[in-house]
Design brief:
The chain contains seven helices and twelve strands. With 234 residues, it is α/β, with parallel strands linked by helices. The chain has one domain: Rossmann fold (3-Layer(aba) Sandwich). The chain has a five-stranded mixed beta barrel with strand order 6-11-10-7-12, surrounded by four helices. Strands 1-2-3 form a three-stranded antiparallel beta sheet, with helices on both faces. A two-stranded antiparallel ribbon has the order 4-5. Bound molecules: adenine. The site of adenine has 12 residues, from β6, β11, β12 and α7.
Protein backbone atom coordinates (compact mmCIF):
# COMPACT_ATOMS: atom_id res chain seq x y z
CA UNK A 1 0.00 0.00 0.00
CA UNK A 2 1.19 3.48 -0.81
CA UNK A 3 0.66 4.64 2.80
CA UNK A 4 3.16 2.04 4.00
CA UNK A 5 6.04 3.32 1.85
CA UNK A 6 5.47 6.90 0.71
CA UNK A 7 7.23 8.23 3.84
CA UNK A 8 10.43 6.44 2.83
CA UNK A 9 10.19 7.64 -0.78
CA UNK A 10 9.94 11.24 0.47
CA UNK A 11 12.65 10.86 3.08
CA UNK A 12 15.12 9.41 0.57
CA UNK A 13 14.20 12.06 -2.02
CA UNK A 14 13.49 9.45 -4.71
CA UNK A 15 12.19 10.61 -8.09
CA UNK A 16 9.09 9.23 -9.80
CA UNK A 17 9.94 7.32 -12.99
CA UNK A 18 7.94 6.66 -16.16
CA UNK A 19 5.27 3.97 -15.55
CA UNK A 20 6.39 0.34 -15.36
CA UNK A 21 3.66 -0.40 -17.90
CA UNK A 22 1.60 2.28 -19.67
CA UNK A 23 -1.63 0.34 -19.10
CA UNK A 24 -1.21 -0.38 -15.37
CA UNK A 25 -1.45 1.95 -12.36
CA UNK A 26 1.81 0.63 -10.84
CA UNK A 27 4.31 3.40 -10.17
CA UNK A 28 7.93 3.52 -9.06
CA UNK A 29 10.50 5.89 -7.66
CA UNK A 30 14.27 5.64 -7.71
CA UNK A 31 17.43 7.42 -6.69
CA UNK A 32 20.88 7.11 -5.20
CA UNK A 33 21.54 7.17 -1.47
CA UNK A 34 25.09 8.44 -1.09
CA UNK A 35 27.43 6.72 1.34
CA UNK A 36 29.92 8.70 3.44
CA UNK A 37 33.67 8.27 3.08
CA UNK A 38 34.61 4.60 2.85
CA UNK A 39 30.92 3.66 2.47
CA UNK A 40 29.15 2.45 -0.66
CA UNK A 41 26.38 4.34 -2.48
CA UNK A 42 23.08 2.52 -2.80
CA UNK A 43 20.78 2.57 -5.84
CA UNK A 44 17.22 2.30 -4.53
CA UNK A 45 13.91 1.72 -6.30
CA UNK A 46 10.51 1.59 -4.58
CA UNK A 47 7.41 0.42 -6.44
CA UNK A 48 3.71 0.49 -5.53
CA UNK A 49 1.03 -1.54 -7.27
CA UNK A 50 -0.93 1.71 -7.60
CA UNK A 51 -4.51 2.80 -7.20
CA UNK A 52 -7.44 0.88 -8.69
CA UNK A 53 -9.26 3.40 -10.92
CA UNK A 54 -12.54 1.46 -10.67
CA UNK A 55 -12.79 1.31 -6.88
CA UNK A 56 -10.69 4.27 -5.68
CA UNK A 57 -8.46 2.20 -3.40
CA UNK A 58 -4.94 0.79 -3.56
CA UNK A 59 -4.51 -2.46 -5.48
CA UNK A 60 -3.53 -4.70 -2.59
CA UNK A 61 -2.94 -8.46 -2.65
CA UNK A 62 -0.80 -10.98 -4.46
CA UNK A 63 -1.60 -10.36 -8.12
CA UNK A 64 -0.96 -6.58 -8.33
CA UNK A 65 2.09 -6.90 -6.03
CA UNK A 66 3.64 -9.66 -8.12
CA UNK A 67 2.93 -7.87 -11.38
CA UNK A 68 4.53 -4.64 -10.14
CA UNK A 69 7.50 -6.50 -8.61
CA UNK A 70 8.04 -8.50 -11.81
CA UNK A 71 8.09 -5.35 -13.94
CA UNK A 72 10.36 -3.61 -11.44
CA UNK A 73 12.81 -6.53 -11.33
CA UNK A 74 13.01 -6.71 -15.12
CA UNK A 75 13.55 -2.93 -15.35
CA UNK A 76 15.77 -2.26 -12.31
CA UNK A 77 17.54 -5.65 -11.88
CA UNK A 78 17.98 -5.41 -8.09
CA UNK A 79 20.48 -7.44 -6.04
CA UNK A 80 17.90 -7.63 -3.27
CA UNK A 81 14.08 -7.46 -3.44
CA UNK A 82 12.48 -6.25 -0.18
CA UNK A 83 8.76 -6.57 0.52
CA UNK A 84 8.18 -4.13 3.38
CA UNK A 85 4.66 -3.72 4.72
CA UNK A 86 2.22 -4.32 7.52
CA UNK A 87 0.64 -7.50 8.81
CA UNK A 88 -1.79 -8.94 11.28
CA UNK A 89 0.05 -10.47 14.25
CA UNK A 90 -0.89 -13.11 16.81
CA UNK A 91 -0.92 -12.58 20.58
CA UNK A 92 -0.32 -16.31 21.10
CA UNK A 93 3.03 -15.87 19.26
CA UNK A 94 3.93 -12.89 21.48
CA UNK A 95 3.21 -10.21 18.86
CA UNK A 96 2.23 -6.66 19.79
CA UNK A 97 1.29 -3.62 17.72
CA UNK A 98 4.43 -2.15 16.13
CA UNK A 99 6.52 -5.34 16.45
CA UNK A 100 8.63 -5.97 13.33
CA UNK A 101 9.33 -9.39 11.81
CA UNK A 102 11.39 -10.98 9.07
CA UNK A 103 10.49 -14.39 7.72
CA UNK A 104 11.77 -17.45 9.55
CA UNK A 105 10.90 -20.91 8.23
CA UNK A 106 8.86 -21.14 5.03
CA UNK A 107 6.54 -18.62 3.38
CA UNK A 108 3.02 -20.06 3.30
CA UNK A 109 -0.25 -19.36 1.50
CA UNK A 110 -3.30 -19.82 3.73
CA UNK A 111 -6.07 -19.42 1.13
CA UNK A 112 -4.98 -21.67 -1.72
CA UNK A 113 -6.90 -24.86 -0.89
CA UNK A 114 -6.49 -27.28 -3.81
CA UNK A 115 -7.29 -30.89 -2.78
CA UNK A 116 -5.59 -32.54 -5.76
CA UNK A 117 -2.31 -34.50 -5.83
CA UNK A 118 0.73 -32.13 -6.00
CA UNK A 119 -1.50 -29.08 -6.33
CA UNK A 120 -2.24 -29.24 -2.58
CA UNK A 121 1.46 -28.67 -1.76
CA UNK A 122 1.75 -26.07 -4.54
CA UNK A 123 -1.19 -24.25 -2.95
CA UNK A 124 0.39 -24.00 0.51
CA UNK A 125 3.70 -22.88 -1.02
CA UNK A 126 6.26 -23.60 1.70
CA UNK A 127 8.77 -21.41 -0.07
CA UNK A 128 11.98 -21.44 1.99
CA UNK A 129 12.86 -18.11 3.60
CA UNK A 130 16.62 -17.68 3.51
CA UNK A 131 17.37 -15.90 6.76
CA UNK A 132 20.36 -13.57 6.65
CA UNK A 133 21.16 -13.19 10.36
CA UNK A 134 23.25 -9.99 10.05
CA UNK A 135 20.39 -8.44 8.03
CA UNK A 136 17.85 -9.46 10.66
CA UNK A 137 20.01 -7.97 13.39
CA UNK A 138 20.49 -4.73 11.41
CA UNK A 139 16.71 -4.46 11.09
CA UNK A 140 16.17 -5.13 14.80
CA UNK A 141 13.47 -7.59 13.73
CA UNK A 142 12.27 -10.83 15.25
CA UNK A 143 11.71 -13.92 13.11
CA UNK A 144 8.29 -15.40 12.48
CA UNK A 145 6.35 -17.54 10.03
CA UNK A 146 4.69 -15.34 7.39
CA UNK A 147 1.50 -16.51 5.68
CA UNK A 148 -0.08 -14.82 2.67
CA UNK A 149 -3.65 -14.67 1.38
CA UNK A 150 -5.81 -12.38 -0.71
CA UNK A 151 -8.44 -11.78 1.98
CA UNK A 152 -8.10 -9.48 4.94
CA UNK A 153 -10.80 -11.23 6.99
CA UNK A 154 -9.89 -14.86 7.85
CA UNK A 155 -12.23 -17.85 7.57
CA UNK A 156 -12.62 -20.41 10.40
CA UNK A 157 -10.53 -22.85 8.32
CA UNK A 158 -7.74 -20.30 7.99
CA UNK A 159 -7.74 -19.68 11.75
CA UNK A 160 -7.10 -23.42 12.24
CA UNK A 161 -4.28 -23.22 9.63
CA UNK A 162 -2.62 -20.29 11.47
CA UNK A 163 -2.65 -22.24 14.74
CA UNK A 164 -1.39 -25.49 13.20
CA UNK A 165 1.41 -23.79 11.23
CA UNK A 166 2.35 -21.45 14.11
CA UNK A 167 1.92 -18.42 11.86
CA UNK A 168 3.19 -15.13 13.30
CA UNK A 169 2.38 -12.70 10.47
CA UNK A 170 -0.72 -12.79 8.28
CA UNK A 171 -0.47 -10.53 5.26
CA UNK A 172 -1.23 -10.25 1.55
CA UNK A 173 1.91 -10.32 -0.62
CA UNK A 174 5.07 -11.92 0.77
CA UNK A 175 4.75 -15.57 -0.33
CA UNK A 176 3.92 -14.52 -3.90
CA UNK A 177 6.95 -12.24 -4.03
CA UNK A 178 9.14 -14.95 -2.45
CA UNK A 179 8.03 -17.26 -5.26
CA UNK A 180 8.79 -14.62 -7.90
CA UNK A 181 12.21 -13.89 -6.38
CA UNK A 182 13.01 -17.61 -6.33
CA UNK A 183 12.09 -17.90 -10.03
CA UNK A 184 14.17 -14.84 -10.93
CA UNK A 185 17.13 -15.84 -8.73
CA UNK A 186 17.01 -12.62 -6.70
CA UNK A 187 17.68 -12.44 -2.94
CA UNK A 188 14.45 -11.68 -1.11
CA UNK A 189 13.61 -10.16 2.25
CA UNK A 190 10.13 -9.70 3.73
CA UNK A 191 9.85 -7.17 6.54
CA UNK A 192 6.45 -6.98 8.24
CA UNK A 193 5.24 -4.64 11.01
CA UNK A 194 2.14 -5.50 13.06
CA UNK A 195 -0.84 -3.12 12.77
CA UNK A 196 -3.49 -5.43 14.28
CA UNK A 197 -3.86 -8.68 16.16
CA UNK A 198 -5.79 -11.53 14.55
CA UNK A 199 -6.53 -13.29 17.87
CA UNK A 200 -7.80 -10.18 19.66
CA UNK A 201 -11.42 -9.15 20.25
CA UNK A 202 -10.99 -5.86 18.34
CA UNK A 203 -11.74 -6.42 14.61
CA UNK A 204 -8.53 -6.48 12.56
CA UNK A 205 -9.80 -3.83 10.15
CA UNK A 206 -10.46 -1.20 12.83
CA UNK A 207 -7.08 -1.77 14.55
CA UNK A 208 -5.40 -1.66 11.12
CA UNK A 209 -6.94 1.71 10.26
CA UNK A 210 -6.11 3.16 13.68
CA UNK A 211 -2.47 2.00 13.68
CA UNK A 212 -1.49 2.20 9.99
CA UNK A 213 0.25 5.58 9.97
CA UNK A 214 2.07 5.05 13.30
CA UNK A 215 3.29 1.59 12.30
CA UNK A 216 4.33 2.81 8.83
CA UNK A 217 6.67 5.27 10.58
CA UNK A 218 8.17 2.38 12.57
CA UNK A 219 8.71 0.49 9.30
CA UNK A 220 10.33 3.55 7.72
CA UNK A 221 12.74 3.96 10.67
CA UNK A 222 13.81 0.31 10.42
CA UNK A 223 14.40 0.62 6.68
CA UNK A 224 16.48 3.77 7.09
CA UNK A 225 18.55 1.98 9.74
CA UNK A 226 18.89 -0.98 7.35
CA UNK A 227 20.12 1.25 4.52
CA UNK A 228 22.76 2.78 6.82
CA UNK A 229 23.93 -0.76 7.56
CA UNK A 230 23.91 -1.72 3.85
CA UNK A 231 26.27 1.19 3.13
CA UNK A 232 28.96 -0.27 5.40
CA UNK A 233 28.19 -3.98 5.03
CA UNK A 234 31.31 -6.10 4.31
N1 LIG B 1 -2.04 -6.16 6.74
C1 LIG B 1 -2.13 -5.56 7.93
N2 LIG B 1 -2.93 -6.25 8.77
C2 LIG B 1 -3.38 -7.33 8.07
C3 LIG B 1 -4.24 -8.39 8.37
N3 LIG B 1 -4.81 -8.50 9.56
N4 LIG B 1 -4.48 -9.30 7.40
C4 LIG B 1 -3.91 -9.19 6.19
N5 LIG B 1 -3.08 -8.20 5.86
C5 LIG B 1 -2.81 -7.27 6.79
Amino acid sequence: MRAEGQGLVDRLGLTEQAPLDPDLPACWFSGRVEGGSGERDLEIAIAFAGEDPYHACDRIGTVPATLAAYLLCRRFRPDLLVNAGTCGGFQRAGASIGAVYVAGGDFLFHDRRIPLPNFEAFGVGRIPAILDEPMRAALGAETGIISTGDSFAPTAEELVFFERERVTCKEMEAASLASLARDLGIHFLALKAVTDLVDHPEPEASAFERNLSRVSVILEERLVRFLEWMKVRE
